[in-house]
Amino acid sequence: MRPFLLGIAVFCLSLPALLIRGARAPIEAIGFWRLILACAVLAPWAWRRRKAWRASAPALGSIALAGTLFFLHLWTFTWAVSHTTVANLMLAFSTHPVWTGLGAWLLFKEPLGRRELTALVLAGAGVAILFGGSMSLGGAGLAGDLSALLSALFFSGWVLAGRRVRRGLDTVSFLFVAYATAALLFFAAGTARGGAWTGYPLSTWAALATLAFAVSLGGHGLFTYLLNKYDVLVLSCAKLVEPVLAAAGAAWLYREPLSARLGAAFVLIAAGVLVLMRPRSRASLTAS
Q1: Which residues make Cβ contacts (< 8 Å) with residue 148, sequence separation at least 6?
Q2: Chain centroid to CA 7
Q3: Is 114 exposed, middle or buried (0-12, 13-18, 19+ CB in 10 A)?
């Protein structure tokens, strides 16, 4: 059952760039509506677990921090959608397992040895190839690639913060508070910029609803639930399928070109992530 749920999560998490591009709405509106819709679904279950909230009150600040990191991840990811290709975005973002591994070393004192350093070199080489292609086009898309890389860093922070907090709090309560925090930040940012919250065509609302239910709940929700079932790095490696699915979808829907350079960057980044996973793969798969 767990591999099936992981497959659903990975598929759902390959969709956001495609949906965001089709939504054609401001960043803040996209972030706010996808999260507030998700919160509306989670609210009844979160309310039933309100006693757990009181017991976990000291952790609420940490959950709010996780929600802030999630907001930053979504904002930089959404901005990148309009400033680079979907393939470049997803490849740059797919480096996040490396940053997660480095963060685990810094925060949780997990070992950092030869494999981790090899992973960093391989992923760094993949990013260099990816960014080199952007610069060869006169810098077009480079800002979007950098934003995608920032999104990966913020996502790693979200994963690590969630890992620490989730030791004493159920998935629904954690997601509700974190999503609500991120939604409020999107609302504040949108209000400050004077953005519109309504008046969008039906296609935009359909994309926002799919982002809320398929991505925020089906993707991020399942991924957060599985953090307690799998090793975090095994989950990150499974997510390597996402850029392949997203790039194929962008080539089909938006006629975005695929190139040998993208393939080389993906191979290096994927190799880095697989090297990073290797020491823990056997134990993690046995536990599943």
Answers
A1: 76, 77, 80, 84, 88, 89, 90, 91, 92, 93
A2: 15
A3: exposed
Spatial CA neighbour of 53 closest among 234, 180, 138: 180
pLDDT digits (tens, 9 = 90+) for 156-198: 998 888 776 766 677 788 888 899 999 999 999 999 999 899 9
**CA dihedral angle for residue 186, residue 188, residue 190, residue 196, rounded to 10 degrees:** 110
Structural domain total, the chain: 1
How far, rounded to the nearest angstrom, does the alpha carbon of residue 252 sit from its chain's CA centroid?
Answer: 23
Structure tokens of 69? 């990191």
| pLDDT confidence tier of residue 30, bands split at 50, 70 and 90 | very high
For the record, the structure tokens of 75 come out as 């904002």
Provide the token pair at 39: 């919160």
Q: How far apart are the first and last CA of the chain?
A: 9
What is the tens place of the pLDDT at every residue in 212-258? 999 988 887 787 778 777 765 667 667 778 888 899 999 999 998 88
Rounded to whole angstroms, the Cα distance separating 150 from 208 reads 23
Residue 234's closest CA among 243, 244, 223, 249? 223
151, two tokens? 């999104």
DSSP code, position 59: G
Farthest-apart Cα atoms in the chain, separation:
56
Domain that holds residue 45: 2-287
| 3-state DSSP of 134-191 | HHHCCCCCHHHHHHHHHHHHHHHHHHHHHHHHCCCCCHHHHHHHHHHHHHHHHHHHHH
Across the chain, where does the E strand assignment appear? Answer: none
User: For the chain, what percentages of helix, strand and coil (3-state, to nearest 5) are there?
Assistant: 80, 0, 20
